[in-house]
Amino acid sequence: MSKNIPITVAYGDGIGPEIMEATLNIITSAGANLDIETIEVGEQVYLRGNMAGIDPSAWDSLKRTRIFLKAPITTPQGGGYKSLNVATRKTLGLYANVRPCISYHPFVSTKHPVMDLVIVRENEEDLYAGIEHRQTQDVFQCLKLITRPGSEKIIRYAFEYALSNNRKKVTCFVKDNIMKLTDGLFHQIFRDIAVDYPEIENEVWIVDIGAAKMANTPENFDVIVMENLYGDILSDVAAQITGSVGLAGSANIGANYSMFEAIHGSAPRRAGQNLANPSGLLLGAVMMLNHIGQIDVATNVHNAWLKTLEDGIHTYDIFKENISKQKVGTKEFAKAVIERVGEKPKTLKEVKYKAIEKREARVSAGKYKIQRKDLVGVDVFLDWKNGSAEDLGEILKKSSTNHLNLSFMSNRGVKVWPSGNPETFCTDHWRCRFVQTKTDEALNNSHVIELLESINNSGFDFIKTEHLYNFDGEPGYSKAH
Ligand code: NAD
Q1: Could you read off the pLDDT of 309-351 as tens digits, one per residue?
Q2: What local confidence, expressed as pLDDT, does residue 114 receive?
Q3: Which of 57, 207, 266, 322 could serve as 72's disulfide partner, Cβ 3.0–4.6 Å?
Q4: Pocket residues for ligand 1 (CB within 6 Å)?
Q5: Are residues 185 and 222 in the same domain?
Q6: What is the CA radius of gyration of the chain?
Q7: Residues 223 and 274 reside in one and the same domain
Protein backbone atom coordinates (compact mmCIF):
# COMPACT_ATOMS: atom_id res chain seq x y z
CA MET A 1 0.00 0.00 0.00
CA SER A 2 1.39 3.39 -1.02
CA LYS A 3 1.91 6.00 1.64
CA ASN A 4 -0.61 8.71 2.38
CA ILE A 5 -0.05 12.04 0.70
CA PRO A 6 -0.93 15.12 2.78
CA ILE A 7 -3.31 17.52 1.03
CA THR A 8 -5.12 20.68 2.11
CA VAL A 9 -8.86 20.82 1.56
CA ALA A 10 -11.24 23.82 1.67
CA TYR A 11 -14.96 23.11 1.61
CA GLY A 12 -15.79 26.61 0.32
CA ASP A 13 -19.20 28.28 0.14
CA GLY A 14 -22.61 27.78 -1.48
CA ILE A 15 -22.64 24.34 -3.10
CA GLY A 16 -18.97 23.92 -2.10
CA PRO A 17 -19.41 21.75 1.04
CA GLU A 18 -21.82 19.37 -0.73
CA ILE A 19 -19.68 18.81 -3.81
CA MET A 20 -16.51 18.52 -1.70
CA GLU A 21 -18.09 15.87 0.53
CA ALA A 22 -19.23 13.94 -2.56
CA THR A 23 -15.80 14.23 -4.18
CA LEU A 24 -13.88 13.11 -1.09
CA ASN A 25 -16.32 10.25 -0.59
CA ILE A 26 -15.75 9.01 -4.11
CA ILE A 27 -11.97 9.27 -4.19
CA THR A 28 -11.40 7.80 -0.73
CA SER A 29 -13.83 4.94 -1.46
CA ALA A 30 -11.81 4.29 -4.63
CA GLY A 31 -8.66 3.95 -2.53
CA ALA A 32 -7.00 7.37 -2.62
CA ASN A 33 -4.31 7.52 0.05
CA LEU A 34 -4.60 10.97 1.52
CA ASP A 35 -3.94 12.75 4.80
CA ILE A 36 -6.49 15.54 4.66
CA GLU A 37 -5.93 18.86 6.44
CA THR A 38 -8.96 21.12 6.32
CA ILE A 39 -8.77 24.91 6.19
CA GLU A 40 -11.46 27.54 6.15
CA VAL A 41 -11.46 30.06 3.31
CA GLY A 42 -14.07 32.29 1.71
CA GLU A 43 -17.20 34.10 2.73
CA GLN A 44 -17.14 33.61 6.54
CA VAL A 45 -13.46 34.55 6.69
CA TYR A 46 -14.14 37.69 4.62
CA LEU A 47 -17.11 38.60 6.81
CA ARG A 48 -14.94 38.27 9.94
CA GLY A 49 -13.00 41.22 8.51
CA ASN A 50 -10.17 39.39 6.79
CA MET A 51 -10.13 41.14 3.41
CA ALA A 52 -8.12 38.34 1.80
CA GLY A 53 -10.65 35.60 2.64
CA ILE A 54 -7.96 33.36 4.12
CA ASP A 55 -6.49 33.29 7.63
CA PRO A 56 -2.71 33.47 7.99
CA SER A 57 -2.73 30.01 9.67
CA ALA A 58 -4.26 28.47 6.54
CA TRP A 59 -1.13 29.39 4.58
CA ASP A 60 0.87 27.17 6.99
CA SER A 61 -1.13 24.14 5.90
CA LEU A 62 -0.78 25.03 2.22
CA LYS A 63 2.95 25.56 2.56
CA ARG A 64 3.24 22.20 4.34
CA THR A 65 1.19 20.04 1.96
CA ARG A 66 1.75 22.02 -1.27
CA ILE A 67 -1.39 20.41 -2.70
CA PHE A 68 -4.72 22.24 -2.44
CA LEU A 69 -8.14 20.79 -3.30
CA LYS A 70 -10.52 23.72 -3.17
CA ALA A 71 -14.28 24.01 -3.50
CA PRO A 72 -15.68 27.23 -5.00
CA ILE A 73 -16.05 30.21 -2.70
CA THR A 74 -18.28 33.28 -2.60
CA THR A 75 -16.65 36.67 -2.59
CA PRO A 76 -19.05 38.99 -0.74
CA GLN A 77 -20.44 41.92 -2.70
CA GLY A 78 -19.05 45.35 -1.92
CA GLY A 79 -15.68 47.01 -2.05
CA GLY A 80 -12.41 46.08 -0.46
CA TYR A 81 -12.57 42.28 -0.64
CA LYS A 82 -9.62 40.79 -2.48
CA SER A 83 -10.14 37.77 -4.72
CA LEU A 84 -8.93 34.70 -2.82
CA ASN A 85 -8.47 32.82 -6.08
CA VAL A 86 -6.20 35.48 -7.54
CA ALA A 87 -4.28 35.75 -4.23
CA THR A 88 -3.77 31.97 -4.00
CA ARG A 89 -2.60 31.68 -7.59
CA LYS A 90 -0.15 34.54 -7.16
CA THR A 91 1.14 33.68 -3.68
CA LEU A 92 1.73 30.04 -4.58
CA GLY A 93 3.08 30.88 -8.05
CA LEU A 94 0.40 28.80 -9.83
CA TYR A 95 1.17 30.09 -13.29
CA ALA A 96 -0.65 27.48 -15.39
CA ASN A 97 -4.38 26.94 -15.29
CA VAL A 98 -5.29 23.78 -17.17
CA ARG A 99 -8.96 23.31 -18.09
CA PRO A 100 -10.00 20.27 -20.11
CA CYS A 101 -13.40 20.74 -21.77
CA ILE A 102 -14.85 17.53 -23.16
CA SER A 103 -18.31 16.65 -24.45
CA TYR A 104 -19.99 13.38 -23.49
CA HIS A 105 -22.28 12.81 -26.46
CA PRO A 106 -24.78 11.12 -26.61
CA PHE A 107 -25.14 10.97 -22.82
CA VAL A 108 -24.98 14.69 -22.11
CA SER A 109 -26.90 16.96 -24.45
CA THR A 110 -24.55 19.23 -26.41
CA LYS A 111 -24.46 20.98 -29.77
CA HIS A 112 -20.91 19.68 -30.14
CA PRO A 113 -20.76 15.89 -30.09
CA VAL A 114 -17.05 15.89 -30.88
CA MET A 115 -15.22 18.14 -28.47
CA ASP A 116 -12.10 17.38 -26.52
CA LEU A 117 -9.97 20.44 -25.95
CA VAL A 118 -7.78 21.78 -23.17
CA ILE A 119 -7.42 25.44 -22.37
CA VAL A 120 -4.08 26.39 -20.85
CA ARG A 121 -4.62 29.80 -19.30
CA GLU A 122 -1.83 32.03 -18.02
CA ASN A 123 -2.74 32.60 -14.40
CA GLU A 124 -0.63 35.39 -12.90
CA GLU A 125 -0.30 38.31 -15.30
CA ASP A 126 -2.27 40.40 -17.76
CA LEU A 127 -5.03 42.67 -16.43
CA TYR A 128 -5.14 40.47 -13.30
CA ALA A 129 -2.03 42.18 -11.90
CA GLY A 130 -4.68 44.31 -10.19
CA ILE A 131 -2.92 47.62 -10.91
CA GLU A 132 -5.74 50.08 -11.43
CA HIS A 133 -5.87 53.84 -11.04
CA ARG A 134 -8.38 56.59 -11.30
CA GLN A 135 -6.40 59.44 -12.75
CA THR A 136 -8.90 62.19 -13.50
CA GLN A 137 -12.60 62.91 -12.98
CA ASP A 138 -13.41 60.96 -16.13
CA VAL A 139 -10.69 58.39 -16.68
CA PHE A 140 -9.91 55.06 -14.98
CA GLN A 141 -7.11 52.77 -16.05
CA CYS A 142 -6.09 49.13 -15.60
CA LEU A 143 -2.56 48.11 -16.44
CA LYS A 144 -2.05 45.09 -18.68
CA LEU A 145 1.28 43.46 -17.91
CA ILE A 146 2.67 40.75 -20.16
CA THR A 147 6.18 39.61 -19.31
CA ARG A 148 8.73 37.66 -21.29
CA PRO A 149 9.41 35.04 -18.55
CA GLY A 150 5.69 34.70 -17.75
CA SER A 151 4.81 34.14 -21.40
CA GLU A 152 7.71 31.74 -21.95
CA LYS A 153 6.68 29.69 -18.91
CA ILE A 154 3.02 29.28 -19.90
CA ILE A 155 3.65 28.69 -23.60
CA ARG A 156 6.33 26.10 -22.92
CA TYR A 157 3.99 24.51 -20.38
CA ALA A 158 1.31 24.22 -23.09
CA PHE A 159 3.70 22.46 -25.50
CA GLU A 160 5.06 20.19 -22.76
CA TYR A 161 1.47 19.37 -21.74
CA ALA A 162 0.64 18.50 -25.35
CA LEU A 163 3.70 16.24 -25.57
CA SER A 164 3.01 14.44 -22.28
CA ASN A 165 -0.71 14.02 -22.93
CA ASN A 166 -0.49 12.85 -26.52
CA ARG A 167 -2.08 15.97 -27.89
CA LYS A 168 -1.34 16.92 -31.50
CA LYS A 169 -1.78 20.67 -31.80
CA VAL A 170 -1.30 23.83 -29.75
CA THR A 171 -3.23 26.96 -30.77
CA CYS A 172 -2.50 30.43 -29.46
CA PHE A 173 -5.19 33.15 -29.22
CA VAL A 174 -3.95 36.77 -29.15
CA LYS A 175 -5.11 40.25 -30.04
CA ASP A 176 -1.85 41.56 -31.44
CA ASN A 177 -3.46 43.44 -34.31
CA ILE A 178 -4.43 45.93 -31.58
CA MET A 179 -2.03 45.29 -28.69
CA LYS A 180 1.09 45.09 -30.79
CA LEU A 181 3.58 45.15 -27.91
CA THR A 182 1.94 43.03 -25.19
CA ASP A 183 0.05 40.49 -27.28
CA GLY A 184 2.75 40.87 -29.94
CA LEU A 185 5.28 39.58 -27.39
CA PHE A 186 3.05 36.60 -26.48
CA HIS A 187 2.63 35.78 -30.19
CA GLN A 188 6.36 36.05 -30.94
CA ILE A 189 7.30 33.85 -27.96
CA PHE A 190 4.71 31.30 -29.11
CA ARG A 191 6.36 31.25 -32.55
CA ASP A 192 9.83 30.90 -31.01
CA ILE A 193 8.89 28.08 -28.63
CA ALA A 194 6.86 26.17 -31.23
CA VAL A 195 10.13 25.58 -33.10
CA ASP A 196 11.32 23.38 -30.22
CA TYR A 197 8.32 21.05 -30.73
CA PRO A 198 8.34 20.10 -34.43
CA GLU A 199 6.11 17.07 -33.85
CA ILE A 200 3.29 19.27 -32.51
CA GLU A 201 1.26 21.33 -34.95
CA ASN A 202 0.90 24.98 -34.02
CA GLU A 203 -1.33 27.86 -35.12
CA VAL A 204 -2.26 31.37 -34.06
CA TRP A 205 -5.68 33.05 -34.25
CA ILE A 206 -6.78 36.56 -33.38
CA VAL A 207 -8.83 35.91 -30.23
CA ASP A 208 -12.15 37.19 -31.57
CA ILE A 209 -12.35 34.96 -34.62
CA GLY A 210 -10.56 32.20 -32.68
CA ALA A 211 -13.24 32.33 -29.99
CA ALA A 212 -15.99 32.26 -32.62
CA LYS A 213 -14.42 29.20 -34.24
CA MET A 214 -13.97 27.51 -30.89
CA ALA A 215 -17.65 28.04 -30.05
CA ASN A 216 -18.75 26.88 -33.50
CA THR A 217 -16.33 24.05 -34.36
CA PRO A 218 -14.58 23.05 -31.13
CA GLU A 219 -13.64 19.74 -32.73
CA ASN A 220 -10.92 21.61 -34.65
CA PHE A 221 -9.05 22.51 -31.45
CA ASP A 222 -6.79 20.50 -29.18
CA VAL A 223 -4.72 22.57 -26.71
CA ILE A 224 -5.30 26.35 -26.69
CA VAL A 225 -2.91 28.62 -24.82
CA MET A 226 -4.05 32.11 -23.84
CA GLU A 227 -3.30 35.08 -21.69
CA ASN A 228 -5.19 35.34 -18.42
CA LEU A 229 -8.32 37.32 -19.38
CA TYR A 230 -9.02 35.55 -22.67
CA GLY A 231 -8.48 32.19 -20.94
CA ASP A 232 -10.76 33.11 -18.05
CA ILE A 233 -13.64 34.01 -20.35
CA LEU A 234 -13.18 31.36 -23.01
CA SER A 235 -12.71 28.42 -20.66
CA ASP A 236 -16.18 29.10 -19.23
CA VAL A 237 -17.54 29.26 -22.78
CA ALA A 238 -15.79 26.00 -23.68
CA ALA A 239 -17.01 24.24 -20.52
CA GLN A 240 -20.58 25.45 -20.98
CA ILE A 241 -20.83 24.24 -24.59
CA THR A 242 -19.80 20.72 -23.58
CA GLY A 243 -23.22 20.58 -21.87
CA SER A 244 -22.78 22.21 -18.44
CA VAL A 245 -20.28 24.41 -16.69
CA GLY A 246 -20.71 21.91 -13.84
CA LEU A 247 -18.72 19.28 -15.77
CA ALA A 248 -15.26 20.81 -15.95
CA GLY A 249 -12.40 20.61 -13.48
CA SER A 250 -9.21 22.61 -13.47
CA ALA A 251 -5.64 22.34 -12.27
CA ASN A 252 -3.57 25.34 -11.23
CA ILE A 253 0.06 24.35 -11.48
CA GLY A 254 3.22 26.05 -10.23
CA ALA A 255 6.81 25.00 -9.72
CA ASN A 256 6.25 24.05 -6.05
CA TYR A 257 2.51 24.15 -5.39
CA SER A 258 -0.69 23.13 -7.11
CA MET A 259 -4.39 23.74 -6.61
CA PHE A 260 -7.29 21.74 -8.03
CA GLU A 261 -10.86 22.93 -8.33
CA ALA A 262 -14.03 23.03 -10.40
CA ILE A 263 -14.15 25.83 -12.93
CA HIS A 264 -17.62 26.96 -11.88
CA GLY A 265 -18.51 29.11 -8.88
CA SER A 266 -20.37 28.54 -5.64
CA ALA A 267 -23.86 28.73 -7.25
CA PRO A 268 -25.43 30.07 -4.00
CA ARG A 269 -29.00 29.66 -5.28
CA ARG A 270 -28.46 25.88 -5.48
CA ALA A 271 -26.76 25.55 -2.11
CA GLY A 272 -27.94 23.21 0.64
CA GLN A 273 -30.49 21.40 -1.54
CA ASN A 274 -28.50 18.33 -2.58
CA LEU A 275 -28.83 19.48 -6.19
CA ALA A 276 -25.36 20.42 -7.41
CA ASN A 277 -23.36 18.37 -9.84
CA PRO A 278 -20.05 17.41 -8.14
CA SER A 279 -18.44 16.41 -11.46
CA GLY A 280 -16.31 19.54 -11.96
CA LEU A 281 -14.65 19.22 -8.56
CA LEU A 282 -14.38 15.44 -8.98
CA LEU A 283 -12.51 15.86 -12.27
CA GLY A 284 -10.31 18.45 -10.55
CA ALA A 285 -9.60 15.80 -7.90
CA VAL A 286 -8.79 13.27 -10.65
CA MET A 287 -6.20 15.73 -11.97
CA MET A 288 -4.85 16.00 -8.42
CA LEU A 289 -4.60 12.21 -8.05
CA ASN A 290 -2.62 12.04 -11.29
CA HIS A 291 -0.42 14.88 -10.10
CA ILE A 292 0.45 13.09 -6.84
CA GLY A 293 1.08 9.80 -8.64
CA GLN A 294 -2.07 7.90 -7.60
CA ILE A 295 -2.64 7.00 -11.23
CA ASP A 296 -4.73 3.85 -10.73
CA VAL A 297 -7.19 5.58 -8.42
CA ALA A 298 -7.46 8.49 -10.88
CA THR A 299 -8.15 6.06 -13.73
CA ASN A 300 -10.73 4.06 -11.74
CA VAL A 301 -12.59 7.12 -10.51
CA HIS A 302 -12.67 8.73 -13.95
CA ASN A 303 -13.94 5.55 -15.65
CA ALA A 304 -16.56 4.97 -12.94
CA TRP A 305 -17.72 8.55 -13.44
CA LEU A 306 -17.96 8.07 -17.24
CA LYS A 307 -19.96 4.88 -16.66
CA THR A 308 -22.34 6.76 -14.35
CA LEU A 309 -22.96 9.35 -17.09
CA GLU A 310 -23.49 6.54 -19.60
CA ASP A 311 -25.99 4.85 -17.29
CA GLY A 312 -28.08 8.03 -17.44
CA ILE A 313 -27.70 8.87 -13.75
CA HIS A 314 -27.68 12.64 -13.97
CA THR A 315 -27.94 15.69 -11.73
CA TYR A 316 -30.50 18.38 -12.65
CA ASP A 317 -28.11 20.47 -14.77
CA ILE A 318 -27.54 17.72 -17.34
CA PHE A 319 -30.82 15.83 -16.90
CA LYS A 320 -32.85 15.50 -20.12
CA GLU A 321 -36.06 13.41 -20.30
CA ASN A 322 -35.13 11.66 -23.53
CA ILE A 323 -31.48 10.95 -22.63
CA SER A 324 -31.28 10.52 -18.86
CA LYS A 325 -32.62 7.60 -16.85
CA GLN A 326 -32.63 8.92 -13.30
CA LYS A 327 -32.48 12.43 -11.87
CA VAL A 328 -30.37 12.34 -8.73
CA GLY A 329 -29.02 14.70 -6.11
CA THR A 330 -25.38 15.29 -5.26
CA LYS A 331 -25.20 12.47 -2.67
CA GLU A 332 -26.94 9.89 -4.86
CA PHE A 333 -24.72 10.77 -7.79
CA ALA A 334 -21.64 10.18 -5.62
CA LYS A 335 -23.07 6.86 -4.45
CA ALA A 336 -23.66 5.80 -8.07
CA VAL A 337 -20.06 6.61 -8.99
CA ILE A 338 -18.74 4.69 -5.97
CA GLU A 339 -20.84 1.66 -6.96
CA ARG A 340 -19.21 1.71 -10.40
CA VAL A 341 -15.57 1.89 -9.29
CA GLY A 342 -13.84 -0.87 -11.25
CA GLU A 343 -16.25 -0.55 -14.20
CA LYS A 344 -15.43 1.03 -17.52
CA PRO A 345 -17.54 3.02 -19.96
CA LYS A 346 -18.79 1.12 -23.01
CA THR A 347 -19.46 3.93 -25.50
CA LEU A 348 -17.51 6.88 -24.11
CA LYS A 349 -13.75 6.62 -24.42
CA GLU A 350 -12.22 4.87 -21.44
CA VAL A 351 -9.36 6.80 -19.81
CA LYS A 352 -6.01 5.12 -19.28
CA TYR A 353 -3.76 7.38 -17.29
CA LYS A 354 -0.05 6.70 -17.25
CA ALA A 355 2.61 8.09 -14.99
CA ILE A 356 4.06 11.07 -16.77
CA GLU A 357 7.74 10.52 -17.23
CA LYS A 358 9.80 13.20 -15.57
CA ARG A 359 12.03 14.90 -18.08
CA GLU A 360 13.61 18.27 -18.52
CA ALA A 361 11.50 20.70 -20.55
CA ARG A 362 13.04 21.44 -23.92
CA VAL A 363 14.79 24.76 -23.72
CA SER A 364 16.55 26.42 -26.57
CA ALA A 365 19.59 28.13 -25.13
CA GLY A 366 20.41 31.77 -25.63
CA LYS A 367 17.50 32.75 -27.87
CA TYR A 368 16.94 35.99 -26.06
CA LYS A 369 19.76 38.50 -25.72
CA ILE A 370 19.77 41.59 -23.53
CA GLN A 371 19.07 44.54 -25.80
CA ARG A 372 20.47 48.04 -25.67
CA LYS A 373 17.92 50.33 -24.04
CA ASP A 374 17.94 54.05 -24.97
CA LEU A 375 15.65 56.72 -23.54
CA VAL A 376 14.28 58.76 -26.45
CA GLY A 377 11.37 60.65 -24.96
CA VAL A 378 8.55 60.68 -22.45
CA ASP A 379 4.75 60.63 -22.51
CA VAL A 380 3.42 63.02 -19.89
CA PHE A 381 -0.26 62.56 -19.01
CA LEU A 382 -2.18 65.65 -17.92
CA ASP A 383 -5.49 66.15 -16.14
CA TRP A 384 -6.81 69.22 -17.98
CA LYS A 385 -10.26 70.50 -18.89
CA ASN A 386 -9.84 74.18 -19.69
CA GLY A 387 -10.38 74.26 -23.43
CA SER A 388 -9.73 72.58 -26.77
CA ALA A 389 -6.83 70.42 -27.88
CA GLU A 390 -5.59 73.35 -29.95
CA ASP A 391 -5.60 75.59 -26.83
CA LEU A 392 -3.68 73.02 -24.78
CA GLY A 393 -1.11 72.33 -27.51
CA GLU A 394 -0.33 75.99 -27.97
CA ILE A 395 0.27 76.57 -24.23
CA LEU A 396 1.99 73.27 -23.50
CA LYS A 397 4.55 73.51 -26.28
CA LYS A 398 6.04 76.44 -24.38
CA SER A 399 6.98 73.96 -21.60
CA SER A 400 9.32 72.11 -23.99
CA THR A 401 12.94 72.19 -22.88
CA ASN A 402 16.28 72.13 -24.68
CA HIS A 403 16.21 68.34 -24.57
CA LEU A 404 12.54 67.39 -24.88
CA ASN A 405 10.12 68.89 -27.36
CA LEU A 406 6.32 68.45 -27.54
CA SER A 407 5.73 66.28 -30.59
CA PHE A 408 2.03 65.45 -30.41
CA MET A 409 -0.89 64.96 -28.06
CA SER A 410 -3.58 62.31 -28.07
CA ASN A 411 -6.80 61.81 -26.17
CA ARG A 412 -8.00 58.23 -25.60
CA GLY A 413 -5.31 57.22 -28.12
CA VAL A 414 -6.50 59.52 -30.94
CA LYS A 415 -4.07 62.19 -32.10
CA VAL A 416 -5.62 65.59 -31.43
CA TRP A 417 -2.64 67.96 -31.77
CA PRO A 418 -1.12 69.21 -34.02
CA SER A 419 -3.75 69.26 -36.76
CA GLY A 420 -6.35 67.17 -34.97
CA ASN A 421 -9.97 66.90 -35.95
CA PRO A 422 -11.92 69.44 -33.86
CA GLU A 423 -14.82 66.97 -33.74
CA THR A 424 -12.83 64.31 -31.85
CA PHE A 425 -14.39 63.80 -28.42
CA CYS A 426 -11.86 64.70 -25.74
CA THR A 427 -11.84 63.74 -22.07
CA ASP A 428 -9.80 65.37 -19.29
CA HIS A 429 -6.92 62.88 -19.83
CA TRP A 430 -4.23 63.96 -22.28
CA ARG A 431 -1.21 61.98 -23.42
CA CYS A 432 1.46 64.52 -24.38
CA ARG A 433 4.50 63.08 -26.14
CA PHE A 434 7.80 64.84 -25.73
CA VAL A 435 10.70 63.56 -27.83
CA GLN A 436 14.43 64.02 -27.71
CA THR A 437 15.68 67.11 -29.54
CA LYS A 438 19.45 66.71 -29.42
CA THR A 439 20.39 63.24 -30.60
CA ASP A 440 24.11 63.84 -29.95
CA GLU A 441 23.53 63.82 -26.17
CA ALA A 442 22.09 60.78 -24.37
CA LEU A 443 18.76 61.54 -22.74
CA ASN A 444 18.43 60.67 -19.05
CA ASN A 445 16.07 61.03 -16.14
CA SER A 446 17.43 64.48 -15.19
CA HIS A 447 16.12 65.74 -18.53
CA VAL A 448 12.72 64.24 -17.74
CA ILE A 449 12.71 65.88 -14.30
CA GLU A 450 13.66 69.22 -15.90
CA LEU A 451 10.69 68.84 -18.29
CA LEU A 452 8.29 67.94 -15.46
CA GLU A 453 9.45 71.00 -13.50
CA SER A 454 8.80 73.16 -16.50
CA ILE A 455 5.32 71.65 -16.95
CA ASN A 456 4.60 71.99 -13.23
CA ASN A 457 5.77 75.61 -13.21
CA SER A 458 3.28 76.35 -15.98
CA GLY A 459 0.52 75.19 -13.61
CA PHE A 460 -0.34 71.87 -15.27
CA ASP A 461 -1.46 68.84 -13.28
CA PHE A 462 0.64 65.94 -14.55
CA ILE A 463 -0.74 62.63 -13.38
CA LYS A 464 1.72 60.13 -14.77
CA THR A 465 4.63 59.66 -17.09
CA GLU A 466 5.72 56.79 -19.30
CA HIS A 467 9.29 56.74 -20.55
CA LEU A 468 9.85 56.02 -24.23
CA TYR A 469 12.68 53.60 -24.86
CA ASN A 470 14.21 52.15 -27.96
CA PHE A 471 15.50 48.59 -27.67
CA ASP A 472 18.34 47.97 -30.14
CA GLY A 473 16.90 50.92 -32.06
CA GLU A 474 13.35 49.51 -32.18
CA PRO A 475 10.65 51.65 -30.49
CA GLY A 476 9.36 50.05 -27.27
CA TYR A 477 6.15 52.11 -27.32
CA SER A 478 3.07 52.49 -29.48
CA LYS A 479 2.79 55.24 -32.08
CA ALA A 480 -0.22 57.60 -32.24
CA HIS A 481 -3.30 56.50 -34.20
P1 NAD B 1 -21.59 29.94 -10.78
O2 NAD B 1 -20.63 29.16 -11.58
O3 NAD B 1 -21.57 29.77 -9.31
O4 NAD B 1 -23.05 29.62 -11.31
C5 NAD B 1 -23.44 29.87 -12.64
C6 NAD B 1 -24.62 28.97 -13.02
O7 NAD B 1 -24.19 27.65 -13.21
C8 NAD B 1 -25.69 28.91 -11.94
O9 NAD B 1 -26.91 29.13 -12.60
C10 NAD B 1 -25.68 27.54 -11.37
O11 NAD B 1 -26.95 27.05 -11.20
C12 NAD B 1 -24.92 26.72 -12.43
N13 NAD B 1 -23.94 25.83 -11.80
C14 NAD B 1 -22.68 26.13 -11.43
N15 NAD B 1 -22.08 25.07 -10.90
C16 NAD B 1 -22.98 24.07 -10.90
C17 NAD B 1 -22.94 22.73 -10.46
N18 NAD B 1 -21.85 22.19 -9.89
N19 NAD B 1 -24.04 21.98 -10.61
C20 NAD B 1 -25.12 22.49 -11.17
N21 NAD B 1 -25.23 23.75 -11.61
C22 NAD B 1 -24.16 24.54 -11.48
O23 NAD B 1 -21.36 31.49 -11.14
P24 NAD B 1 -21.95 32.80 -10.46
O25 NAD B 1 -23.39 32.61 -10.11
O26 NAD B 1 -21.56 33.89 -11.40
O27 NAD B 1 -21.07 33.02 -9.16
C28 NAD B 1 -21.50 32.67 -7.86
C29 NAD B 1 -20.39 32.92 -6.87
O30 NAD B 1 -19.29 32.07 -7.17
C31 NAD B 1 -19.83 34.35 -6.85
O32 NAD B 1 -19.66 34.76 -5.52
C33 NAD B 1 -18.48 34.21 -7.53
O34 NAD B 1 -17.57 35.16 -7.05
C35 NAD B 1 -18.09 32.81 -7.12
N36 NAD B 1 -17.11 32.17 -8.02
C37 NAD B 1 -16.15 31.41 -7.40
C38 NAD B 1 -15.23 30.73 -8.17
C39 NAD B 1 -14.17 29.93 -7.46
O40 NAD B 1 -14.16 29.87 -6.24
N41 NAD B 1 -13.25 29.31 -8.18
C42 NAD B 1 -15.30 30.77 -9.56
C43 NAD B 1 -16.34 31.50 -10.17
C44 NAD B 1 -17.24 32.20 -9.39
Answers
A1: 999 999 999 999 999 999 999 999 999 999 999 999 999 999 9
A2: 94
A3: 266
A4: 15, 19, 72-75, 85, 245-246, 261, 264-268, 270, 276-277, 280, 317
A5: yes
A6: 26
A7: no
Residues 232 and 136 in one domain: yes
Q: Does any domain span residue 365?
A: no
Task: Report the C-alpha gap between 352 and 299 in whole angstroms.
Answer: 6
CATH number at residue 469: 3.30.70.1570
Tell me how far the alpha carbon of residue 299 lies from the centroid of ligand 1, in angstroms.
27
Question: What's 172's domain CATH number?
Answer: 3.40.50
CA of 39 to the centre of ligand 1 (A): 21
Q: Where are the alpha helices (DSSP H) in 116-248?
A: 148-164, 182-194, 207-216, 228-241
- Whole-number Å distance between alpha carbons of 242 and 103: 4
Residue 365 has pLDDT above 60, yes or no: no
CA of 458 to the centre of ligand 1 (A): 53
Is 109 among the domain residues?
Answer: no
What distance in angstroms lies between residue 443's CA and the mean position of ligand 1's atoms? 53
Nearest to 109 by CA among 323, 333, 328: 323
Residue at 242: amino acid letter: T
Residue nearest to atom 23 of ligand 1 (CA): 265
The answer to whether residues 232 and 122 belong to one domain is yes
Q: Could you report the per-residue pLDDT of 221-264, keeping only the tens digit for each?
A: 999 999 999 999 999 999 999 988 889 999 999 999 999 999 99
Against a cut of 0.90, is the pTM above it?
Answer: yes
- What residue's CA is closest to ligand 1, atom 37? 265
Segments forming the whole domain that contains residue 428: 373-475
Same domain? 47 vs 138: no
Between the CA of 265 and the centroid of ligand 1 the distance, in Å, is 3
**Count of domains in the chain?**
3
**Cα–Cα distance measured from residue 215 to residue 229, given in angstroms and rounded to the nearest whole number:** 17
DSSP annotation of 216 reads H
